[in-house]
Amino acid sequence: MRKKQKISIKDISKELGISITTISFIINKKAENKISKEVIKKVEDYIEEVGYKPNSTAQTLRTGKSKTIVFMAEDISDPFFSAIAKEMEEIAFENGYKIIYCSTENKKERALELLSLFKDRQVDAFIITPPEGFRDEMEKLVNEKKQVVMVFDRYYNDLEHNYVVLDNLDSSKRATRYLLDSGYQNVGFVGLKSDISPTQERLQGYQHVVAANGQKDRSVLIPFDDVKTAEGKEMIREFLKRNPQIDSLLFATNSLAISGLKVLKEESLRIPDDVSVLTFDDRDLFELYSPSISVISQPVSELANELIKGTLNLLKSDFKESVKFQKVLKGRLIERNSSHLISENNSI
């Protein structure tokens, strides 16, 4: 069977008797107010009929746009980041964009290698969860103004940039206050040893509330690379042994909570009888766990919508100085059995 010949813009021009330039304008969505609706419809109908597909490389060279967005997450396998990615993909696709996913594993060197790779491919935008120690590199990337840059999940106070984040300080304050108001006297905090904004703000929110209530700061910070290791579990175990009076625990991430739950089980500490548990970031495991685990849930759909729509709007603005996109969204505290009290509405 003879292979079907690929159709070019030149072929369409010859068939319809319309200039290549006019057809190019229509294909690249630049025909509005320049070309009559009748001609646009004629070309679009023919393109659909013959199944014409633009050459992506040639199109990038002509327009300077690859119609590609890179989502550089901390860990794309994490249920939180993968859920965000899935929802963004739907909206991006509807707007003619594709998304490429990758993980930095919170490593600066890896993030730099990925940036170099995708810059060479002329992607249109980066949505990045920056790793530790990445502030100066982020400033350089923002100032290049070659790609739209949107920062997700964390931000820099001293850098003017686009971002979409959770209100981590307020969420941590509400979580800590909820535990104290529920009658717990000694709230412990298990966080990350990191310079990124969410981990710092979650610790600060906890410290602010316990200090305001005359309670002692009982916190431990686990290095990122140790969270899922035996070393990380041992740090949590030793923390509990040093602070036997702790009657409730606030975990700063879902990964820390999973390690903590393993330690509590190994130490035969019952939830919530011996210690109450509350964690950031919901996942199916926490709802199915026995007892079910209370969480600060991030608004995944809203975060994804703000991220991708904000990025698309920035792409349309073509680096206008006045255009900035900065969103801070509220988390939701969902009460489950691990923190004793179950409200009528199941969330606050």
TrEMBL record:
Transmembrane segments: none annotated. Residues 7-63 form the HTH lacI-type domain. Keywords: DNA-binding, Transcription, Transcription regulation. GO terms for molecular function: DNA binding. It comes from the Bacteria. The keyword Nucleus does not apply. Residues 1-53 form the HTH cro/C1-type domain. This is LacI family DNA-binding transcriptional regulator. It comes from Salegentibacter chungangensis.
